[in-house]
Amino acid sequence: MADSSEFDPQSILSHKYPDTTYNYTERDVVLYALGVGACGQDAVDGDELKYIYHENGQQFVQVLPTFAALFSLASALNGFNLPGLQYDPRLLLHGQQYIELYRPFPSSGCIHNKVSLAGLHDKGKAAIIEIETKSYEKDSGELLCINRMTGFLRGAGGFSKSSQPYSYSSYSSNKVSSLKIPKSQPFAVFEDCTQPSQALLYRLSGDYNPLHSDPMVAKVAGFSRPILHGLCTLGFSVRAIIKCICRGDPNLVRSISARFLLHVYPGETLITEMWLEGLRVIYQAKVKERNRTVLSGYVDIHRLSSSL
Q1: Do residues 159 and 9 make contact, with C-beta atoms less than 8 angstroms apart?
Q2: Which domain of life does the protein's organism represent (predicted)?
Q3: Active-site residue, from 94, 121, 212, 263
Q4: What pTM, to 2 d.p., does this model score?
Q5: Which of 18, 116, 159, 222 is deepest in the core (most CB within 10 A)?
Q6: Does 230 qualify as catalytic in the annotation?
Q7: Are 187 and 259 in contact (CB under 8 A)?
Q8: What domains does the chain contain, in order, with CATH numbers?
Q9: What string of DSSP letters covers 98-115?
Q10: Which of 111, 227, 245, 282 is the catalytic position?
Q11: Burial of 50 (0-12, 13-18, 19+ CB in 10 A)
């Protein structure tokens, strides 16, 4: 728990994070696609081979929109580094993720990231921190996407000096939290199996948190075995939406919002349910074996050439 005598929440409002650079190649794009299950059930899947291979004479592989989440990974891996805020990184949980996309990503590139604090909340036994990352193509200076991630730091709360929990946020982070899943039958349902080695494959995209690979670390965090990365689960669900709603076109995705509700164990089956409301796809993902909802949110899409 944070020491309120050393930690002044107001002091972080002027806290500056260093800019970061993210370099990637086509190999990284392909490895990421495999990490989120592309072609995992069918190696010649007509909707997904384009993420892995130069299909039909195309010059470059296409990039999944959730690849954008990797651009902000350096900020999380380096720690949040707020003066006086102490937390055990093994107890860090990913709470929410929002991605806003401005144009398709090149199959390789150099990304310049500008990172800022977007919110800090004292929840008593935990702290919630919100980080915003604006990612620019380094050569052109063009804004490619914005990531906003929410981290749940167990054991880091209790720093408020007032009787009311401290809360600061520069943007509205509760849109996905208050999202209601429709009671009607889903417009589309897609079932996909994660592999027992899924987390070990996904971690090669840069998230080496031992929670996803080390059995002892997983037990300290309260899990029976290593769990799947939340962003990997998100990749599975957005792939399902691209396949079922976007007719296999990843460039139709305009923004992605996700709330991570429960862990997934590698090897479990994910069922993504989708409801289409105008140009918004509301979705939730369930683990088939435990019948538990693990992820929910929405994906905004560009207008299709013809109605579904």
Answers
A1: yes
A2: Eukaryota
A3: 212
A4: 0.89
A5: 159
A6: yes
A7: no
A8: 9-301 (3.10.129.10)
A9: EEEESSPPPSSEEEEEEE
A10: 227
A11: buried
